[in-house]
Amino acid sequence: MRHHRQISKKEYYRGVQMLPYDLIKELAIATGVMLVVVLVLAAVLSSPDEPSVTVQSWAKAAPLDYVTTATAELAGTAESAAYGPPYDQHHQGDDVQAIGPFAPQIWFGVHVPINAATDYVLQPLSESSPGDPQLAAALTEYRSASHAQQQSWLTAYTAALGKATVSGDTVNVPQGHYGPLPTMMDAMLELGRSGAMDGLLLSGQHFYQTDYSLPLMFMASGGYLAGLAHQYKMEGNQWGMMNETGSYPGQAWLWLYTFWYQIPPFLTATNADLIVVIIMGVLSIVLMLLPLIPGLRDIPRWVPVHRLVWRNYYQEIARVAASRQGPAPSATSG
To answer: What is the domain count for the chain?
Structure first.
């Protein structure tokens, strides 16, 4: 019976060249290199961290536009005051989209009600007036005036804003008969610049705030937000829905949606949103039902692009099949 001698580790590795190896050191170096690469790529390719646009940033950057918009909201002439459903049932102008009798925007009605004068001006001022007797008196004067008198003040003040100048934190208008509006609009500007307006417009009944309709509609009625959209090339005629703020490529998966807005008749249609929604809905249904639609489901068989893409695979399958058949038998003569 043969016995195998136990070989020691030293004998086993005899003659094998050994070099010191520091695993921790190599791991640290690899981690450092990866970190540098990630930071460099992030600096070169990442999107800029643009701050969110708020009512406060608007009031600070463009106080005249802010006050002009607040005045228009009070007068009922701003975009948000005449948008129609889902914000207002009493206005159904160009913003209400329909295709003949097909008008889902009207059918669904108002589910985010906005009273522009109350929500954007009178209510915020009322909530901040208890500690300001002058503002409280101005609100009382405005509310007790007749509708005709209010409109007279608003018309005169709106015209004066076209000649207004900005000095520091105030908007100065020429002398005129504006009633309590200068006091009210000065208070509105202070609410905006302090950030209080953001809080007043976002106050809701839920713990997490997810509905930004009020501040967004307020800002959209002015010119500041549209100016930022133009600056960052995010307007509709600039494929804006695809763009990420200040960077390329953004949400490229939205290209199919934005494509329709770039071609006639969608380019100029007043109901383009509704038409595009219907088209994308139909295309989505066709995509889901593709395996069941005769003709469309046969396209891969008629146009075998997949065989070109996987040509190596199909060539290998053909070789294996040929080798299994073996060589053809040869004919012999007797």
So the answer is: 3
DSSP one-letter string for 18-47 = -----HHHHHHHHHHHHHHHHHHHHHHHSP
How far apart are alpha carbons 276 and 282 in whole angstroms? 10
- The Cα 82–Cα 89 span in angstroms is 9
Task: Tell me, yes or no, whether 126 and 103 share the same domain.
Answer: yes
Peptide bond into 48 cis (omega under 30): no
- Tens-digit pLDDT profile for residues 113-153: 889 999 999 999 999 999 899 999 999 999 999 999 999 99
Does residue 254 surpass a pLDDT of 70?
yes
Domain-located, residue 241: yes
Q: Which residues contact 319 (CB under 8 A, 6 or more apart)?
A: none
User: Over the stretch 287-304, which tens digit does the pLDDT of each residue have?
Assistant: 999 999 998 889 888 988
Q: What pLDDT was estimated at residue 64?
A: 96
99 DSSP β-pair partners: 102
Are the beta carbons of 71 and 161 closer than 8 angstroms?
yes
Are residues 218 and 71 part of one domain?
Answer: yes
Are residues 248 and 154 both part of a single domain? no
Q: Are 127 and 203 in contact (CB under 8 A)?
A: no
Domain coverage including residue 308: 296-323
Are 260 and 301 contained in the same domain? no
Structure tokens at 172: 């100065």
| 218 in the same domain as 75 | yes
**C-alpha triplet 300, 305, 307: angle, nearest 5°:** 100
121 within 8 A of 78, measured Cβ to Cβ: no
Average pLDDT over residues 99-112: 88
What pLDDT, in 10s, does the model give residues 214-252? 999 999 999 999 999 888 877 777 776 666 666 555 677
Rounded Cα distance between 293 and 39, Å, is 49
Q: Specify whether 313 is located in the same domain as 266.
A: no
Domain match, 187 and 143 both: yes
- Asked whether residue 41 is domain-assigned, the answer is no
61 DSSP β-pair partners: none
